[in-house]
């Protein structure tokens, strides 16, 4: 005996249902099976079967086992061979009438495995395609959905958020700053054809350098931003950008996209604890990031065009963004949501260079007085 | 290493005696009590990626715990989470078993645990998902079930039909096909069985007398709905 560890399982009437571990050797004339019936006593029982008495097939859960059957006086024997060395030895030694059906069965198994691989590749490919489709096609889907939401709904959505926000802020009702912002907004709004929004701009007294737009045309400008601006054209630049967020319904797109994506992923993947959950989270984060950038670029471009149509010097927009980015004075919140990269500045400058030159029309107010009025008021407050 | 089932029935526990230097792998959280000579290590079987794939793909816990009798002989008490019987199998290096994903309780260190991918039809319809555990190697293997465990012994060519949600483990010498429970599609589902597995011997099939999913659905109707 060369090896003593069992390499096969033998099934038969006198053997347990799990099969008897046994040692199989392939020899020139047939198989020798040794059953280690009682290991402690070292008792061995060998049976030799010539190839002529064997019937072979392929079996097992993964169709990777060689099954050999034959009859003994005590009953039917079925041998399950899994060990690749033994199977190889069998294929070399056994006569053709045994190995040919075996090769055929092995070929069938290979075909089945090939088919499984193809099925898995198709399923994997389909999954990948739907993920990519969702990624690249989602913009179209979101646009389609947003187009069907009435302006009235959007106004209600924005209005409630606007009132909730303003309730906690010190709102400037009148004064040179309010008049200036209203004039800038009016000049910009006049140049928007078929404008469905009645823009509602509020000046909030705060040192925060920020301005934002809510869905439905509600815009908030902080006095901090106005104090930083050296000319009204700079404020107009920010406002033109924000107005375009409203006009292109960016807020709504974002809401639809975020809710919609989570809904779609939940439907597709259910609520799985493992891989699905991670993918879902990742997907949502990537999607919102990508979306934000695209919106900012669009608002920049259309904002610049709007300034041009309103005969307001568009370079104010670029210089203001750049100046804010250079001075790291903190509290410039507008930049945290609108990071001023050199690529963004270059893009804006290139757009500006392409525009036909024109003479700008000045505003009716004196910007120095507007800024002075802001300093007067905030000087007294903490 | 010696294993003994205490309190056989619905709430069993296993006592495993370890000689000095011996160790056993158990499902994370399975240890109930142990001798002070036993050290508990958490170990990611098959390395980090192996553990990760097992966690994500089969839903098995990320870590197995290893209980090692490093400071002298001792004993360990192990118990599964769900009420139900425990089976002790002795792997001899030739026998291999497929185990549904919640079935593993513990195994001697010579037992190898692999995640294996099933074919599309078995994965979709079998009810155990696309990945199941394959146990091979040598040594003691402890499986747990929901309810009592029933062992079906199949002779070569003998067939048996099992509702797939009752499967615990089966030998790799068996084969099975997924079938509808009755000839018609509608009747298949109205009979409450849906899909069944037609097993073909030789080998063993271990089934559990209760269906965890069915029990969950039954409990759910008594849980008050909260806002």
**SS elements, strand count of chain B:** 18
What name goes with the CATH superfamily of chain B? Answer: Mitochondrial biogenesis AIM24
How many structural domains are formed by the residues of chain A? 2
Q: Unreliable runs of chain A, pLDDT <50, ≥5 residues?
A: 270-276, 286-290, 378-382
Say what oligomer this is.
heterodimer
Helix-strand pattern of chain B? EEEEEHEEEEEEHEEEEEHEEH
Overall, the morphology of chain A is rod-shaped
> Topology as H/E string of chain A?
EEEEEEEHHHEHEEEHHHHHHHH
| Biggest sheet descriptor of chain B | 11 strands, antiparallel
- What is the CATH class name of chain B? Alpha Beta
From the spread of the alpha carbons, the general shape of chain B counts as: globular
- Write down the Rg of chain A: 39 Å
Compute the average pLDDT of chain B. 83
What is the helix content of chain B? 10-25%
Radius of gyration of chain B: 18 Å
Percent strand of chain B:
over 45%
- Intertermini distance of chain A: 97 Å
Largest interchain contact: A-B, 28 and 26 residues
How many structural domains can be distinguished in the coordinates of chain B?
A: 1
Please name the CATH architecture of chain B.
Answer: 4-Layer Sandwich
Description:
The complex is a heterodimer of chains A (382) and B (227). Chain A has 382 residues and is an alpha+beta fold. Chain A folds into two domains: 103 residues, PH-domain like (Roll), CATH 2.30.29; 232 residues, no CATH class. Chain A has twelve helices and eleven strands. Chain B is mainly β. In chain B, strands 3, 5, 6, 8, 9, 10, 11, 12, 13, 15 and 18 form an eleven-stranded antiparallel sheet that branches. Chain B has a four-stranded antiparallel sheet with strand order 1-2-7-4, with no helix packed on it. At the A-B interface, strand 1, strand 7 and helix 2 of A face helix 1 of B.
């Amino acid at each position: 005996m060369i090896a003593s560890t069992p390499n096969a399982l033998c099934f038969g009437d006198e053997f347990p249902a799990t099969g008897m571990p046994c040692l199989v050797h392939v020899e020139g004339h047939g198989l020798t099976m040794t059953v280690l019936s009682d290991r402690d006593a070292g008792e061995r029982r060998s049976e030799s079967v010539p190839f002529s008495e064997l019937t072979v097939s392929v079996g097992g859960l993964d169709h990777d086992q060689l099954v050999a059957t034959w009859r003994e006086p005590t009953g039917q024997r079925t041998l399950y061979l899994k060990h690749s060395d033994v199977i190889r030895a069998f294929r070399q030694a056994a006569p053709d009438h045994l190995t040919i059906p075996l090769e055929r069965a092995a070929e069938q198994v290979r075909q089945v495995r090939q088919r499984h691989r193809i099925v898995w590749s198709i399923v994997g490919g389909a999954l990948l395609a739907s993920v990519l489709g969702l990624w690249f096609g989602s913009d179209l889907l979101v646009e389609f959905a947003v187009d069907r939401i009435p302006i009235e709904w959007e106004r209600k959505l924005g209005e409630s958020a606007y009132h909730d926000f303003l309730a906690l802020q010190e709102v400037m009702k009148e004064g040179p700053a309010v008049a200036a912002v209203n004039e800038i907004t009016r000049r910009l709004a006049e140049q928007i054809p078929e404008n469905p929004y009645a823009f509602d701009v509020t000046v909030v007294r705060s040192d925060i350098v920020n301005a934002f737009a809510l869905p439905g045309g509600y815009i908030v400008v902080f006095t901090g931003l106005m104090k930083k601006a050296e000319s009204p054209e700079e404020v107009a630049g920010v406002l033109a950008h924000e107005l375009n967020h409203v006009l292109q319904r960016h807020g709504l797109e974002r809401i639809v996209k975020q809710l919609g994506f989570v809904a779609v992923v939940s439907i597709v993947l259910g609520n799985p604890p493992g891989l699905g959950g991670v993918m879902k989270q990742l997907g949502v984060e990537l999607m919102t990031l990508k979306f934000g950038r695209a919106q900012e670029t669009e608002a920049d471009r259309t904002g610049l065009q709007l300034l041009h149509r309103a005969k307001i010097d568009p370079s104010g927009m670029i210089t203001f963004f750049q100046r804010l980015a250079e001075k790291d004075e903190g509290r410039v919140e507008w930049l945290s949501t609108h990071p001023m990269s050199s690529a963004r500045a270059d893009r804006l400058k290139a757009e500006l260079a392409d525009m036909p030159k024109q003479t700008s029309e000045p505003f009716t107010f004196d910007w120095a007085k507007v800024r002075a009025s802001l300093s007067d008021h905030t000087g007294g407050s903490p | 290493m010696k294993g003994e089932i205490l309190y056989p029935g619905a709430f069993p526990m296993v006592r495993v005696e370890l000689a000095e230097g011996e160790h056993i792998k158990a499902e994370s959280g399975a240890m109930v009590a142990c001798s002070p000579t036993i050290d508990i290590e958490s170990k990611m079987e098959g390395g980090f990626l192996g553990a990760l794939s097992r966690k994500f793909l089969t839903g098995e816990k990320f870590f197995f715990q290893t209980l090692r009798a490093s400071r002298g002989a001792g004993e360990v008490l192990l118990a599964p989470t769900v009420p139900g019987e425990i089976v002790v199998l002795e792997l001899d290096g030739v026998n291999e078993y497929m185990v549904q994903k919640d079935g593993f309780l513990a195994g001697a260190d010579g037992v190898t645990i692999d995640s294996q991918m099933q074919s599309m039809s078995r994965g979709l319809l079998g009810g155990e998902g696309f990945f199941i555990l394959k146990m091979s190697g040598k040594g003691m293997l402890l499986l747990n079930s929901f309810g009592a465990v029933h062992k079906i012994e199949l002779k070569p060519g003998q067939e048996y039909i099992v509702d797939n949600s009752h499967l615990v483990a089966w030998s790799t010498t068996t084969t099975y096909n997924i079938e509808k429970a009755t000839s018609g599609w509608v009747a298949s589902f109205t009979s409450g069985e849906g899909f069944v597995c037609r097993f073909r011997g030789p080998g063993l099939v271990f089934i559990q007398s209760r269906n965890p999913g069915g029990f969950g659905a039954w409990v759910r109707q008594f849980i008050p709905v909260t806002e």
